[in-house]
């Protein structure tokens, strides 16, 4: 059976260096967020939780699915935009 990592590897990205299209507004809010669903539900694993419960976000492999924006509705702690034209995911290889 094909693993999700193999599927994701089929994608290509053009990273807009220094201009992430998604940002965490307030890191302190994340430490108080009980289940930190973004660290489990992002299909690309862009959100990570460390041993001190800090949440980090690296958007380079983002699929632009919008899931994190929905699951953070309660805290409204994500600033979400599509990447600028010409940047982001290229699905044609997948
Ligand atoms: S769901 Fe929102 S508030 Fe909770 S950890 Fe993720 S980004 Fe932070
Ligand atoms: S838009 Fe989707 S792939 Fe991108 S960071 Fe949010 S949940 Fe992950």
Automatic annotation (TrEMBL):
Keyword entries, A-Z: Electron transport, Iron, Iron-sulfur, Metal-binding, Nitrogen fixation, Transport
InterPro entries: 4Fe4S_Fe-S-bd, ETF-QO/FixX_C, Fd_FixX
Domain 4Fe-4S ferredoxin-type: 20-52
Gene3D superfamilies the record matches: 3.30.70.20
Function summary: Could be a 3Fe-4S cluster-containing protein.
Protein family: To ferredoxins from P.putida and C.tartarivorum, ferredoxin I from A.vinelandii, ferredoxin II from D.desulfuricans.
Protein name: Ferredoxin-like protein
